[in-house]
Amino acid sequence: MNSTNSKIILLSGPIAVGKSTFTEHLTQKHSFALVSSSGILKDIASKKGLPVERKTLQDLGDKLDNETCYRWVSDAFLQKLNHNEHNLYWIFDSIRKNQQKENFLRLFPNNSLHVHLTAPDNILAERYNNRKENQQNSQDKIPYEIAKNHTNEQEARSLFDQADLIYDTEKQEINSIVMDVIKNLEAMKCPK
């Protein structure tokens, strides 16, 4: 267990739900420190000379899950936290599997808030396809139906039932979601 007074959002949700937009609001407008699982995987892939694309990153994440008993995400977060102890508010974007969440909760049992974003599948497909069309070098070159059926994606969607807070990004504006999450995070009592 870690004795930090920092408050941590563990973010989960399906592809194209708005996790990046949510994270940008928190980091740019509310000074949250960010640790990104995709950022960690991209760094590792680059160092190993692997292509930085969705399938490679998913496979690398699966390999790290197996090698570390799913601890690589919480270990990387803890390392960043220990180097930036002055930050009170953090967001981890994103947990994809229940075992990753459980490792966070072992380290931070009283100061983690699991936020899950969701939206109807037709909306997710539309956003995914729009994003794919608007990005020249998109790593999302695979069709939505294939992307959404990947094991990691299915596991991320299953975290819906375990979240502390759940928001539908079709029904609520991101700014409204951000403000509600901050209110809930500030109400958390951390150990002294």
Describe the protein.
Helix 1 (19-30) packs across helix 9 (174-187) and helix 2 (37-47) packs across helix 3 (54-68). The protein has one domain: 3-Layer(aba) Sandwich (Rossmann fold). The relative contact order is 0.23. The chain is 53% helix and 14% strand. The protein is an alpha/beta fold and 192 residues long. The protein starts with 6 loop residues before the first strand and ends in a 5-residue tail after the last helix. It has helices spanning 19-30, 37-47, 54-68, 72-83, 98-107, 121-134, 144-148, 151-158, 174-187, and strands spanning 7-12, 33-36, 89-93, 112-118, 165-168. It has a five-stranded parallel β-sheet, sandwiched between helices. The chain contains nine helices and five strands; from the N terminus they run βαβαααβαβαααβα.
User: What Rg is obtained from the alpha carbons, in whole angstroms?
Assistant: 16 Å
Q: Give the percentage of residues in beta strands.
A: 5-15%
Taken from the alpha-carbon principal axes, the silhouette is globular
What's the SSE pattern? Answer: EHEHHHEHEHHHEH
CATH class identity: Alpha Beta
**Quaternary organization:** single chain
How many distinct beta strands?
Answer: 5
- Poorly predicted parts: none
- As a percent range, the share of helical residues equals 40-55%
Number of helices: 9
What is the assigned CATH homologous superfamily? P-loop containing nucleotide triphosphate hydrolases
**Neighbour order of strands in the largest sheet:** 2-3-1-4-5
The CATH topology is given as Rossmann fold
Task: Using the 3D structure, state the CATH architecture.
Answer: 3-Layer(aba) Sandwich
Q: Which structural class should the secondary elements be placed in?
A: alpha/beta
Average predicted confidence as pLDDT: 91
